């Protein structure tokens, strides 16, 4: 076996980006029109990679866990997001450059400036500076002539900056403004001061129908589409909980100033699960199967203390200790972890970070993000929130449509409570049309209020007041209140929702970073070591040339692979076999087979593995069998080397 | 074999809709908020059905024809649609009720009113009226008390109405207004007159970024995303044409007054192919493989003559005769036909209709729609247009980015032409900064203009004029024009685009109509005879009850099917086996296997076929093999009956 050194050169984002652009994994959308920040198009390899990640997601979650798939609408009438709280609160804090009017996201501004100062400080102290961030590069491009000399900071300032950065996500808008003033944070592009942070709602607005009277928004998440269909889903599931719905689809966020490539975009594909669970029992039937999975956790206490030190612990222990709130949340964290590893994320660069109190979305009671480390830092790629009963409750209250589970109790529950009873005839005579209002006021009373009313009635009469301040006098001829024993045989409850939510573009990009390297012999030869499971093309078929004599064999191999469900591509372009392999190393194609004159004469074919570039040789059908096993993951390359002889690059024609 | 009578009852849309709603194939979006016309959510079986249709589409087109898949952005900056012509012309004609202000689509109004009058006429003549359309029903609901008595029309009026309806799609807005006046067409809901038709742009508008300065639209088709990436796609394809790009994704049209369920919606999933071809050679390499396919064609001449008579002809003949413009267009019509049949469309209710002149989209030079007959009439489900060089040319002209193919010529072409040559030094001296303008004016001249200029120069001097009406005098000291012989070794051309464009929701809905029927014995028992290829669930696993003793067998069968890639579902709900089968007949599940006490004792299992309800029995593993073959389509049910003994409904435990 040739051993491969994948770390001969440090990761170089510029090289990766050149490969992704050259091979059209993705590109800025509307590029020939000058582009629009935060919008990207996926080309053939990017689309295929994304489709393969989605297919595996569907298998790993929807099929294996019997989830109910949905495909709901993107365009959403405004009242839905008014109820959900997005109209009021789905916003970021933005500041403006006080002179140019350029718009900046407040938290990003603070982060970029403080990180730059810390890097400068390190340089001044003669310590190795951290790799320069992309945003810094942009800046430098803009004012190349102002190459600042390193500035050393006081030790206590360094500590303070680091503390601020560790809990950055926890600051409110006014607090971010305060930070800018206190630490003289200005727009680094212009050195101008910035305005006080103001909120900017991130939803794209439109209007539905020809009259312009129905405002709508593009959904910023798929979740509301699940919640609004809850009753139908529950019925489809024969009325039982727990169960989960799942959806893969496009969402939109009008980001203030998107940078960082696929990591912060205005339109993106999400995969979201809403798992509905009894609020009194958040255990998970299959938790035992994942209990042993060890995760890197960064809890909220650690962060509040200004640290980012992770703790490695089994999810079983984390739930037992209460670090992770419940089994269902823990179960999904472990399943997210195994999914990400399957598609090629490096486990050493994956952590689960708990949200701090102010950071949490308005609906969540606990939330952990799967964060993946990449050249931009640690990036949230999957959120896993316990949204409690928030969404179902607010939609139910708003629409009057009950979004509840009704469960037959094995043992009826016996309760005692105060029960009001009206004498309808007397009530009607006295209050006429207002009878209904009177009944409603009393009906809305809680136990304490009923008891107080009962006491007043026992003393002769009581006066109640409607919401519009009208008074009604009641006597025991009209109303009696008695303590009664009631049997309850149905339990009704609003389920809680655990939501794992995947940003597929972010996962795709960080995965590409984790799998990119350059060959030790030649830094110009980039390789994407994509797992066969998600690689856009599994097998490259390379005829020696485009000559017709190879056509029947190319067609045969191509057809046999297709029949086995293995996606292959033929490359008969007019260039050397070496160049064609190099191109496909950049495309992440794990295996290549070559057809030459010996193939025509002897029916042999060579098989090349991308990472090691080692080659094997064998009968065409035997090689096909081996390559199918490799792609399906039933054998490894060393095992394949046991089944076929090595090929030394010289093939004789008998 | 039990023979099955699927036509015992006429198709009943109300029954189908009840099934689709009850089983949550799809439902109005935001239903608990009162819904929004034209927006629908797909539930679990609808999502799965759609996903299966998409998977087959991907296989039939993208994989088999080596198309380049794309995934481009929905949110699009306005300049793109200004260039493409959508801002100016992507509109429908709408009229308003002159009193209530209600908005109606002009062509739909004419159609509904004239069809209603023709139906009333038939009734008056004692002929069987056509089944009442949904739109009519809605109307009747609104004014139940106004049950109009049938009105007979003059014979020549009947002929005129039929002629209008046959060429309805060919009228312009003013012509529709004229029709309303001439035939007293009023809003049928109110009997009020309607206003003159005005254009309403169907794109949803929004704005991109925090400053509101960048107007954007939601794409009404995915096509522009292909065209803007043409250069990258061509390079990915090693510079060769023909090739095709393909994309599956969401598009949006702000329909004026959507009705007709999934057939006219505001948000929908499309699958679009853009096939780039040499304008001088629109032949197709694989046309020979489809030449024999017989299609039902309705050409534009037939329609213009006021008829809707179809002609059955092989696509080979249709192309040879020039009815269909070229081989590539013909090839795709045939491929569309085979795709639609595969997923369950009835060929007798499928026709290809050619667009008439006024009807054609602004970019098309020829266009055929695959129309599928259903209870709403004939509905366009796939468009297949020759967009010529329109899109690539306009984007290229607007952006200055060449969207062209450059082809090395085998034989260089030798041409003679007039070539202007400036004396730059003298030119600069005389015109200073205006030199560039002078050069541009001459550079933009065609052969005739150059010849005329040459003649004037030979006579002493010539005067040329800029676009802003400034004159420049030229002499032969400044400019000479000579006839030169040039060799051209590269041919540069803008490819033409053939575009098959699929509306997946419409295909899905019409397919459901074509496959719905009620059992002869019991009209209440609806069946969806979905082909196994697209059925949401392929095999239902039915344990006799939810008792634990069946669990290991259920798990075993479930796992073995999953391993074979066959999607199954377990139904262990607390109801009779018969009811569970009936539910799955409505869900279109083609096969069911039952596990009972005999299974536990003997390892036998029964297998039921949905349409015939006949059952077979055999060893569990043998039944699994048969069911896999059935699902993969390698055997038919009659063949399965040869492999397993019939089951009479009584199973003994040995």
Automatic annotation (TrEMBL), chains A, B:
GO terms for cellular component: mitochondrion. GO terms for molecular function: ATP binding; glycine-tRNA ligase activity. Its EC number is 6.1.1.14. Residues 161-536 form the Aminoacyl-transfer RNA synthetases class-II family profile domain. GO terms for biological process: mitochondrial glycyl-tRNA aminoacylation. Coiled coil: none annotated. It is found in: Cytoplasm. Residues 125-147 are annotated as: Disordered. Keywords: Aminoacyl-tRNA synthetase, ATP-binding, Cytoplasm, Ligase, Nucleotide-binding, Protein biosynthesis. SUPFAM superfamilies: Class II aaRS ABD-related, Class II aaRS and biotin synthetases. Belongs to the class-II aminoacyl-tRNA synthetase family. PANTHER family: GLYCINE--TRNA LIGASE, GLYCYL-TRNA SYNTHETASE/DNA POLYMERASE SUBUNIT GAMMA-2. This is glycine--tRNA ligase. It comes from Neolentinus lepideus HHB14362 ss-1.
């Amino acid at each position: 076996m040739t051993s491969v050194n994948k770390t001969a050169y440090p990761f170089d984002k510029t090289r990766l980006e050149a490969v992704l652009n050259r091979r059209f994994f993705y590109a800025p959308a509307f590029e020939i029109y000058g582009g629009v920040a935060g919008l990207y198009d996926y080309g053939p390899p990017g689309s295929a990679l994304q489709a393969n990640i989605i297919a595996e997601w569907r298998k790993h979650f929807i099929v294996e866990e019997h989830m109910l798939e949905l495909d709901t609408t993107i365009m959403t009438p405004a009242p839905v997001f008014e109820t959900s709280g997005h109209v009021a609160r789905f916003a970021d804090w933005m500041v403006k450059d006080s002179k140019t009017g350029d718009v900046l996201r407040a938290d990003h501004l603070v982060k970029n400036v403080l990180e730059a100062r810390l890097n400068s400080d390190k340089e001044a102290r003669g310590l190795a500076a951290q790799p320069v961030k992309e945003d810094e590069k942009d800046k430098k491009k803009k004012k190349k002539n102002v190459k600042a000399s390193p500035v050393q900071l006081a030790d206590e300032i360094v500590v303070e900056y680091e503390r601020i950065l560790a809990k950055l996500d926890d600051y409110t808008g006014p607090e971010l403004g305060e930070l800018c003033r206190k630490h003289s944070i200005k727009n680094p592009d212009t050195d101008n001061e910035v305005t006080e942070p103001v909120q900017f709602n991130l939803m794209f607005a439109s209007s539905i129908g020809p009259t312009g009277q129905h405002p709508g928004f593009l959904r910023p998440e798929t979740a509301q589409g699940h919640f609004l269909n809850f009753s139908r889903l529950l019925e489809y599931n024969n009325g039982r909980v727990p169960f989960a719905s799942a959806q893969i689809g496009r969402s939109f966020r009008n980001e203030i100033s998107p940078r960082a490539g696929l990591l912060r975009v205005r339109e993106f594909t999400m995969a979201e699960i809403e798992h509905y669970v009894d609020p009194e029992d958040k255990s998970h039937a299959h938790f035992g199967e994942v209990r042993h999975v060890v995760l890197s956790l960064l809890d909220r206490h650690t962060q509040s203390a200004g640290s980012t030190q992770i703790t490695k612990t089994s999810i079983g222990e984390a739930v037992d200790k209460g670090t992770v709130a419940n089994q269902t949340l823990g179960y999904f964290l472990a399943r997210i972890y195994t999914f990400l590893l399957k598609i090629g994320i490096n486990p050493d660069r994956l952590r689960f970070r708990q949200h701090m109190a102010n950071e949490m979305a308005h609906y969540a009671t606990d939330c952990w993000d799967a964060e993946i480390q990449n050249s931009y830092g640690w990036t949230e790629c999957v959120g896993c929130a316990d949204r409690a009963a928030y969404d179902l409750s607010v939609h139910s209250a708003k629409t009057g449509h009950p979004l509840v589970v009704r469960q037959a109790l094995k043992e009826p529950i016996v309760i005692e409570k105060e029960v009001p009873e009206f004498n309808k005839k007397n009530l009607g005579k006295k209050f006429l049309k207002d009878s209904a209002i009177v009944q409603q006021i009393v009906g809305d009373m809680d136990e304490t209020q009923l008891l107080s009313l009962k006491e007043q009635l026992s003393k002769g009469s009581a006066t109640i007041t409607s919401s519009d301040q009208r008074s009604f006098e009641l006597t025991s001829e009209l109303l009696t209140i008695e303590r009664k024993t009631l049997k309850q045989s149905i339990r009704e409850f609003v389920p809680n929702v655990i939501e794992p939510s995947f940003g597929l573009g972010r996962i795709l990009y960080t995965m590409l970073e984790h799998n990119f390297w350059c060959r030790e012999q030649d830094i110009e030869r980039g390789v994407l070591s994509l797992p066969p499971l998600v690689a856009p093309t599994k097998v490259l078929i390379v005829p020696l040339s485009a000559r017709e004599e190879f056509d029947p064999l190319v067609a045969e191999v191509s057809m046999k692979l297709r029949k086995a469900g293995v996606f292959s591509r033929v490359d008969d372009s007019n260039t050397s076999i070496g160049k064609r392999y190099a191109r496909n190393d950049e495309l992440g194609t794990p295996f290549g087979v070559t057809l030459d004159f010996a193939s025509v004469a002897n029916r042999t074919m060579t098989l090349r593995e991308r990472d090691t570039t080692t080659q094997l040789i064998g009968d065409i059908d035997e090689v096909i069998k081996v390559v199918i096993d490799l792609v399906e993951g039933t054998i490894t390359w060393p095992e394949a080397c046991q089944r076929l002889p090595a090929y030394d690059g010289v093939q004789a024609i008998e």
